[in-house]
Amino acid sequence: MKVYRVNMSKLSFSIEDVPERWNTLGGRGLTSTIISEEVDPTCNPLGSKNKLVFAPGLFAGTKAANSGRLSVGAKSPLTGGIKESNSGGTAAQRLAKLGVKALIIEGMPKDDKWYTIHVHKDGVNIKEETELLGKGNYEVIHTITSRYGENTGVMTIGQAGEYKMSTANISVKDPKGHLRSAGRGGLGAVMGSKHIKFISLDDNDGEGIEIKDKKKFDEAAKIFNKGLLRHPVSGEALPKYGTNVLVNILNEAGGLPTKNSRMGRFEGAEKICGETMHDIIVDRHGDTTHGCHVGCVIRCSQTYNDKDGNYLTSGFEYETIWGFGAGCMVDDLDIIAHIDHECDDTGIDTIDTAGTMMVAMEANLLKWGDGEGILNLIKSEIKSGTPLGRILGNGPDFTGKAYGVLRVPTVKGQTMPAYDPRAVKGIGVTYATTPMGADHTAGYSVTANILKVGGSVDPLKKEGQTELSRDLQIATASIDSTGLCLFVSFAVLDFDEVFISVLDMINAQYGVEWTKDDWNNMGKYVLTIEKEFNRKAGFTKNDDRLPEFTSEAIPPHDAVWDISDEELDKVLQF
Amino acid sequence: MEVNVKLFATLRDGRFKEEKANINENTQISDVISKYNIPREEVKICLINGRDADLNQILKNGDTLSLFPPVGGG
């Protein structure tokens, strides 16, 4: 395999050999390694010293199911720390087929021109772009597909990325020609700072994937794939209801953050829950289940149509529906779907935009429950880059400062997702301590706390939470390096043979002899270099803390945040 | 005595979302599951008044019982 390196200061390109130490790194492990090795932690994230790295995972392009996630890394303009955000879509498998282990973009153009990068088997072409500037992500994807053909991958930024907003994401074309996003941490602003509107990928005649022991790999992949389908969560629940099935269970458990985390239950939950959404999708002839990338067998995504049966949005996730729904007190699924569509098109993260809207409601810019008002702020202000839009597009902390709001639901500048840390304490430990800023996917303690997968730990008690979060953060850092979807974890946690099959696939593909210890050490290594980057960037243990309002009790259980600073400081000490 | 029973996801199919149930003293969660002909293995998560509960936990007058099959997301 090889590394493609693009220098936007010189508008030049080079192909490099993969350093041996990167051989068994992929996805997050590789993006975080490259950022750690090559980016000055004190640099301005929107300046020429930051780099943007795209890396497929270790299994991308193989027969392993759900192995097509793409990792994107940089120093984050939202958190000021290291960032890896991963996405579905078709880009990771195209990079793997081209034999590209990482695409590194560095430097910054010296002029005001905007560019596109076309990636193919012989390298890349850097071209000036004018036609699609100022356009939304859907139009970019449709135009590029007609310009280069159906079988073309696209990674793009919307208007928010062009404005270098801290909530801007990078969107990736999915198999149906819609989009998925590397949502968190403002990576779209980093791409915008380098004046790249989109990256297109042509994998024709790529060199393909090398597998040292193909027979052994295929046997392990068969066990792995069957295991995903045999587990009731990945085999049945996720395909039928998608992630939004969680609204009701978090609501019942009193952990659904409502009205900017004032309550743990939302009166309108039934109107926005996964069961209701499933019935609406069926009624309107949408698609209740499809995969975000080729080879996905879990298929948690869906297509949500409007009342007239026309496409409205897809990849309509629990986090989005919670954030604009319960978080902002909006109980209308159609309006939330419109908001999701506008976020996707503008290229802004739905979790951080929801957090921003909660802060906007605290500031009386909007009334609680005003879904149309949210939609209008996104369409008329953020998308247009008005002064107010630029405040909102820079996220909850920025908006809180602008309006003097104290109740801002963030850790390291990033919005806490859809599980209240007082009522689901294990996820609170993850929000506080992950190097990523508040991120549920970094150590999804909701598994044992609420879903009773991978054991059972009472969500309202502090016992066992730090160990749970630590173990999951380690495992997740490894999973993110393989390029496997995080939802394989349900089967990996519950079925030994599925976990063993993952090790067998690494050993067969790369000709190594990894044990469980090597797997854990990979996760620890990734977390250690990420923590070290953040330390050099100026973070201290005092940044590993939840917002002050979590000392207030949250109904119905009157739960408070009671995990001590000393306990948090030990979580990622290896 | 009376308890409030709430069903979710696939457990709703052919049954109901929410129903008041009249039960005797010393009724366990497993008895309620049997009463609605729900196969035991289909119930993964039981909450009484929003807190974790075991199948053999005894219900009190006015309790809300929430039952879920295996679910996940994130």
Describe the structure.
The complex is a heterodimer of chains A (574) and B (74). Chain A has 574 residues and is an alpha+beta fold. Chain A has three domains: 2-201, 4-Layer Sandwich (Aldehyde Ferredoxin Oxidoreductase,  A, domain 1); 213-240 and 426-574, Aldehyde Ferredoxin Oxidoreductase Protein, subunit A, domain 3; 242-420, Aldehyde Ferredoxin Oxidoreductase Protein, subunit A, domain 2 (Orthogonal Bundle), CATH 1.10.569. Helices cover 40% and strands 14% of the residues of chain A. Chain A has a six-stranded mixed β-sheet. The longest helix of chain A has 22 residues, at 516-537. The model of chain A has no long low-confidence stretch (mean pLDDT 97). With 74 residues, chain B is mainly beta. Chain B has one domain (2-68): Ubiquitin-like (UB roll) (Roll), CATH 3.10.20. Helix content of chain B is 9%, strand content 30%. Chain B has one helix spanning 29-35; strands spanning 2-7, 18-22, 45-48, 51-52, 64-68. In chain B, strand 3 and strand 4 (51-52) form a beta hairpin. Chain B is globular. Classes of the chains: A alpha+beta (574), B mainly beta (74). Chain A binds chain B through residues 232-234, 236-238, 240-246, 248-249, 252-254, 265, 270, 274-275, 300, 317-319, 440-441, 444, 446-447, 450-453, 456, 458-460, 486-487, 490, 556-557, and chain B through 6, 8-10, 12, 17, 44-45, 47, 49-52, 66, 68-74.
